[in-house]
Amino acid sequence: MGLREQFTDQLKTAMKAGDPARTSTLRMILAKLKDTDIAARPKGIAAVPDAEIVAMLRGMVKSRRESVTLYRQGNRPELAAKEEAEIAVIEAFLPQTLDAAATEAAVDAAIAATGATSVKDMGKVMAELRARHAASLDMARAGAAVKAKLGG
Fold first, then answer.
1. CA triple 1-42-131, angle to 5 deg
2. What is the pLDDT of residues 11-34, one digit of tens each?
3. pTM to 2 decimal places
């Protein structure tokens, strides 16, 4: 079952269970997915693949984390809690990300595979990581690790 079907099934379940917070978050995900599909139409893509849906979900989580930080700074814990609840729902659809040790190993393998020697080669290493581990890798953490290993 693809992510689209999971969203729809989960939405039906949340509505039947009378869970307004989960229902609202799932509707937001489906609306964002529709926008993403519409944006892809000029490229001849009717429905974006699961890999792009995962990227869209990661973006949604990232923006909510930023909002949580701002709400905490603004002394609005109730709004921060709402955002955190949305993050929990969204993250349930994301594949498990590699832990620190596995990320480190993936970075080492990508550096070896590309023959990278300096920070100038960072783009090649990141492209290799994206090709091998796109769904399961936190690219921000991986980027920092690559930079540190290449002497940035």
1. 55
2. 999 999 999 999 999 999 999 999
3. 0.71
